[in-house]
């Protein structure tokens, strides 16, 4: 860490927020309120939180940074609740970015692979054309625009397929189903990059340290996932292997055989090139991260 940081993490009760909070120590002071304490749809709360952050950092002689991990992430529910999803994923970040701009506090905003259409054949670069196909993706894309157009010193970091120790996620679901099902069918025609939130949190804090010293990357949109890619079926088989279970119990199926209210990208792998070009530490391969996740239990 290049400088002592005081970090505000909206969305602190989520799996990424909790891993960011876990990094709090001598060099990093993390304040990670959940939505009950800091609701991004309430302007007064946002302004007060950023003001308190700036004051806390000044008193501690540290640099203030905001890492926004708050989001409406119920992908299927957003299809019929887009207004609420927009309020959290777009309007909230707009207010947060304006508050950061007024206090001259750098902002790192976490976004998603779902802003892309999912019809690529090679990993997406930050400059590739967006084309979200779900309400969730549309609201997250709008949030990116709001942050980048705010005048704040800001970066958007896209990631995907997150799993962590807290909350509900694919890894936990597969572990639960393994214990109660002789076989599982998992879609094999959707490919992405699984990312452990502990690794992502470390990467975001490295970026925060750079941003706090005025040495943030020139490129304002970055991609950060664990290295490599896999289908959901392949990922489930890897989870089974980590559990000591037979991975052949996971059977491939198609998206058509497992319909969901919100369309999923068939291919949402994010290129690591922008992260590397910014001289930020690349995240390890997803297989190694998954093994470390289970070893940490």
What does this protein structure show overall?
The protein is of the alpha/beta class and 297 residues long. The chain has a single domain (5-169, 195-227, 269-283), classed as Rossmann fold, CATH 3.40.50. Helices cover 38% and strands 15% of the residues. The protein is built from nine helices and twelve strands. The protein has helices spanning 15-22, 43-60, 82-103, 135-148, 170-178, 197-212, 232-243, 273-277, 286-295, and strands at 5-8, 28-31, 63-68, 107-112, 154-159, 162-163, 184-187, 191-192, 195-196, 221-223, 230-231, 250-253. The strands form four sheets. The chain has a six-stranded parallel beta sheet, with helices on both faces. Helix 4 (135-148) links the parallel strand 4 and strand 5. Helix 2 runs parallel beside helix 3 (82-103) and helix 3 (82-103) packs parallel to helix 4. The longest helix is centred in the first third of the chain and has 22 residues, at 82-103. It starts with a strand and ends with a helix. The model has no long low-confidence stretch (mean pLDDT 96).
Query: What is the CATH class name?
Result: Alpha Beta
Number of helices: 9
Percent helix, as a range, is 25-40%
Mean pLDDT score: 96
Element-by-element helix/strand order: EHEHEHEHEEHEEEHEEHEHH
Shape: globular
**Computed Rg:** 19 Å
């Amino acid at each position: 860490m290049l400088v002592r940081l005081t970090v505000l993490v909206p969305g602190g009760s989520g799996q990424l927020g909790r891993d960011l909070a876990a990094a709090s120590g001598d060099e990093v002071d993390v304040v990670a309120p959940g939505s009950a304490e800091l609701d991004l749809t309430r302007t007064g709360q946002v302004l007060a939180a950023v003001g308190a952050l700036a004051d806390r950092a000044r008193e501690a002689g540290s640099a203030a940074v905001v890492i926004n991990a708050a989001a409406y992430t119920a992908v299927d529910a957003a299809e019929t609740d887009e207004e609420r999803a927009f309020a959290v994923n777009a309007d909230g970040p707009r207010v947060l970015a304006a508050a950061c701009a007024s206090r001259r506090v750098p902002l790192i905003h976490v976004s998603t692979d779902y802003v892309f259409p999912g019809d690529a054949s090679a990993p997406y670069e930050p400059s590739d054309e967006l084309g979200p196909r779900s309400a969730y993706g549309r609201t997250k894309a709008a949030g990116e625009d709001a942050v980048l157009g705010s005048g704040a010193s800001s970066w958007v970091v896209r990631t995907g397929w997150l799993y962590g120790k807290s909350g509900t996620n694919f890894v936990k679901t597969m572990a639960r189903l393994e214990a109660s099902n002789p076989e599982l069918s998992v879609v094999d025609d959707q490919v992405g990059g699984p990312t452990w939130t502990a690794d992502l949190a470390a990467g975001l804090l490295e970026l925060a340290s750079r941003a706090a010293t005025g040495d943030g990357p020139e490129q304002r949109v970055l991609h950060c996932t664990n290295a490599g890619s896999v289908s959901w079926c392949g990922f489930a088989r890897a989870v089974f292997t980590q559990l000591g279970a037979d991975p052949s119990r996971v059977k491939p199926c198609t998206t058509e055989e497992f319909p969901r209210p919100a369309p999923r990208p068939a291919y949402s792998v994010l290129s690591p090139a922008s992260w590397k070009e910014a001289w930020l530490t690349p995240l390890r391969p997803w297989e190694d991260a998954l093994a470390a996740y289970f070893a940490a239990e």
